[in-house]
């Protein structure tokens, strides 16, 4: 996904609900903000029996920096752990960071099956020693970075991620099942 800066954030390795985010250039995360659009898009709730469907409500789903994300990428011959996407983290094409859904259902009410869309706004920066490409080529005000006089470029980019609440049958449970957050089928 191209950004205004020429760098890109790329969710190229989804792993369950954990998403690994990469950047084409080496960039520093200055800030990250997550905003989920409400109401979510309802999905087929026919798996819930009529009484449970009457009580079911939409859950609250937002994203957060993932404290631990493993198995998202094959680097160096095996799954690699990922650090959270948090201010100060450096990411590039080889070292990503992770975000995951933060899911809250209204217990004891079951969560309705739905698709949640979250916009992630990233404030990023990059140290520039020349103005050859990417965010360094877009510096304004006549600023000319050099190796002796580096400059830090700042910009924002957004990306959109989706997660779904799916219904899992559990006949022994109070609601005979439960809503769980997962990757959306077909995504």
Number of strand elements:
13
How many DSSP helices?
A: 1
Helical coverage, percent range: under 10%
Structural class designation: mainly beta
Q: Strand content of the residues, in percent? A: over 45%
Instruction: Quote the average pLDDT.
Output: 78
* Gyration radius over CA: 20 Å
Write down the domain tally. Answer: 1
Biggest sheet overview = 6 strands, antiparallel
Key structural traits:
single chain, 187 residues, mainly beta, 6-stranded antiparallel sheet, 5-stranded mixed sheet, 1 helix, 13 strands, elongated, disordered N terminus
Explain what the structure shows.
The chain has 187 residues and is mainly beta. The protein has one domain (9-182). It has 1 helix and 13 strands; from the N terminus they run E-E-E-E-H-E-E-E-E-E-E-E-E-E. The chain has one helix at 50-55; strands at residues 9-15, 18-23, 27-36, 41-42, 60-65, 74-75, 78-79, 83-84, 90-91, 97-104, 114-128, 151-169, 177-182. Strand 12 (151-169) and strand 13 form a beta hairpin.
Task: Summarize the model shown.
Helix content is 3%, strand content 47%. It is mainly beta and 187 residues long.
What topology emerges from the helices and strands here?
Layout: E1 9-15, E2 18-23, E3 27-36, E4 41-42, H1 50-55, E5 60-65, E6 74-75, E7 78-79, E8 83-84, E9 90-91, E10 97-104, E11 114-128, E12 151-169, E13 177-182
Parallel strand pairs: 8-10
Antiparallel strand pairs: 1-2, 2-10, 3-9, 3-11, 4-11, 5-10, 6-7, 11-12, 12-13
């Amino acid at each position: 996904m191209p950004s205004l800066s020429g760098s890109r954030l790329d969710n190229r390795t989804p792993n369950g609900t954990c998403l690994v985010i990469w950047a084409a250039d080496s960039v520093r995360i200055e800030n990250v903000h997550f905003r989920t659009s409400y109401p979510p898009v309802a999905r087929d709730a026919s798996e819930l029996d009529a009484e449970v469907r009457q009580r079911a409500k939409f859950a609250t789903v937002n994203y957060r920096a993932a404290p631990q994300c493993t198995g998202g990428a094959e680097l160096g011959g095996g799954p690699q752990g990922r650090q959270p996407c948090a201010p100060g983290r450096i990411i590039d094409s080889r070292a990503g960071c992770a975000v995951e859904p933060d899911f809250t259902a209204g217990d004891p009410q079951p969560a309705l099956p739905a698709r949640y869309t979250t916009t992630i706004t990233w404030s990023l920066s990059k140290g520039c020693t020349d103005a050859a490409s990417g965010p360094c080529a877009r510096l304004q005000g006549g600023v000319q970075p050099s190796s002796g006089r580096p400059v830090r470029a700042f910009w924002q980019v957004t990306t959109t991620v989706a997660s779904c609440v799916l219904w899992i049958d559990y006949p022994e449970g109070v609601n005979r099942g439960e809503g769980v957050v997962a990757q959306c089928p077909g995504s």
